[in-house]
Amino acid sequence: MSITVLDAREWQTVLDLRTGEKVESTGPLVDTVKGVLQRHPYPGDMDRASNRWVTDTALDLMEGYRPRFVFLTYAAQYFSGRYNAMTKKQRAEILSEAFLEAERFIDASGFTGIVMGTGNMTPLQGIIDVTEIDGLAISTHWSARYAGLYGPGPDDLKFLNEHPRIERIIPRDAVCGLFGGTSEQSLRVPEYLMLAREGYAFRTISGAMKVPVMIPALNFAVPVHAPGRVVEAITDIRGIIERDLAKHKIALIVMEGVGLEEFPLSHVPCRNGKEWFYYEPGDGQYLTVSTGEHRFYDYPTGYKYFDELDSTKDYPFSGFFTSIPQGTFASGFAGKSIAVGNKSMFMHMVTGADIAIECFARNLYNQGTMAVIHREDKL
Amino acid sequence: MRCNYCEKRCQIEQGKTGYCRMYTVDENGVRERFPHRWSACGTSRIESFPFYHAYPGTRSMTIGTASCNFRCRYCSNAYIAKEDPEVLQGRMYVFSPAKVMDTAKKLGCHNIVFNVNEPTVSIPSLLELGDLAKSAGLPMGCLTNGYATEESIELLASIFSFFNVSLKGLSADFNKRYIGIDSSSPVLRNIRRLAQDRHVEVTTPVIQGTNDNEIDAIADFLESVDAEIPWHVFRLLPEDEMKGAEYPNIRAIDAALRFVRMRLPYVYFHNFVGSEWVNTRCPACGSVVIERFSLGCGGDRLNRFLCEGKSCPRCHQEIRLMIDEAQRNTEEAHS
Question: What is the pTM of this model?
Answer without folding.
Answer: 0.95
